[in-house]
Structure prediction request, 162 residues.
Amino acid sequence: MAEEREPCWQEIGKADCFRLLAGQRLGRIAVVDDLGPVLFPVNYLLDRHMVVIRTSEGTKLQAAAGGHKVAFEVDGTDELTSTGWSVVVRGEATEVTGDTELERLRSLPLIPWAPGDRTRYLRILPAAVTGRRILAPDGRQQAGCAGAQLMSSEEAAPWERA
Prediction:
C-alpha cells in the first residue's frame, strides 16, 4: 500500500509573485464598507508593480477616495500536477486622476468584462506582496515538497475544524 503523503506548501518569492500577477487578468479586490469586508471580482493588469483596475462609482471608488487599505488576490491551479498558488497584494487603493497618467493607462489593454461605464482607474500601491504554492499530497509533486513545509490538518482542510 502506498504511503499517504501530507499536503505541503512553499512560500513564493516576490519576483515570482509579480510574474504570476502579470500572467493573469482576473482577480478579487477586498474592501471594507459599512457592513464589513466585501470582495469584488475585477479585471486588472499589473503596471509598474502596481495592480490597476477600471471601475465606476461605488464601493471600490469610495475605498480609494478614503485612502483605505485593500487586499487584492489572484490564484491559479494546475489539475495535471494537483498544485495551486495564491498571491495577495495588500496596500492602499488610490484613484488615478492625472491627465498624463490617465492617457497612458487608457492605452493599456485593460478591458473590463463587467457591463457599465468603467472609466475610472484605481491603482493599488503595494505595502506587502505574498504568495504561497500548495503542492499535491498524492506524490506527483514529491520532488517539489523537498524543503517545503508540511501543512497542518487545519491548514489543509480549515472547513473540517470542529
Notes: The chain has one domain: 12-131. Residues 59 and 129 are 23 Å apart (CA to CA).
